Amino acid sequence: MKKNAIIVFSISLLLLVNTSYFWVKLPVLFDALISFLLFLSFLILIVLFIKQLKKGFNEKFQFKKRNINIVVSLFVLVIIYLFPFGCINFEKIIYGDDILYIQYEGVANGTTNLKFKNDNVFIEKSIFFGIDYNQGKYKIKKDTIFLEFDKKSNFNRKNAYCTFDKLNNNYTFYYYNGKFERPLPMKVINGNYSKLNQ
């Protein structure tokens, strides 16, 4: 087992990163702790890779097991670097493409995202010292999108709504979540509001 420790460690790290869609839904302290541990594990794997590479150079890459350790750890490091939230998009597999994706960027690059999917499903994700993830159903009446959360929103609300600013060239939405007196202005990142009505 000790001989395979680097391979097991690398593959475990890759699996945890690629299943982040599921564990990110845990309460904020848990997902923040897991994220920190994954970042620490990534740094440890870099150190292990460098050590293995140095030994490989000294041995002129004659040992098959060490060569496998080097290749596997390098592969995992590159994949995680290129796809830090995983290379499998489970959200797309489960819910399909975004019909509309809007975002508010607050202080310290914290964001609140709303993604509207088929079958009147929406997903709210807030990223700020951890990730809060909620979903629910939406209904449209005129220029307003009414949101009803399955549980509660990141702002501890069961209901919220967005209004569409037809006069703004950036197609801004205003998200009324009950937490703040003023609505959050959200810009369209992807998609089209008119497709929600289809």
Structure description:
The chain has an eight-stranded antiparallel beta barrel. It contains five helices and eight strands. The chain is elongated, with a radius of gyration of 22 Å. Strand 3 (121-127) and strand 4 (131-141) form a beta hairpin. It has helices at 5-18, 20-23, 28-58, 64-82, 90-95; strands at residues 100-105, 111-116, 121-127, 131-141, 144-149, 159-164, 173-176, 184-191. The protein is of the alpha+beta class.
List the helices and strands and how they pair.
Blueprint lengths: L4 H14 L1 H4 L4 H31 L5 H19 L7 H6 L4 E6 L5 E6 L4 E7 L3 E11 L2 E6 L9 E6 L8 E4 L7 E8 L7
Antiparallel strand pairs: 1-2, 1-8, 2-3, 3-4, 4-5, 5-6, 6-7, 7-8
The number of distinct β-strands equals 8
Order of strands across the main sheet:
1-2-3-4-5-6-7-8
Runs in which pLDDT lies below 50 for 5 or more consecutive residues are none
Largest sheet: 8 strands, antiparallel, barrel
> Which class do the helix and strand fractions yield?
alpha+beta
Basic shape: elongated
Q: Report the total helices.
A: 5
How much of the sequence lies in strands comes to: 25-35%
Order of helices and strands: HHHHHEEEEEEEE
Helix content: 25-40%
User: What does the radius of gyration come to?
Assistant: 22 Å
User: Span from first to last CA?
Assistant: 56 Å
* Mean of all residue-level pLDDT scores: 83
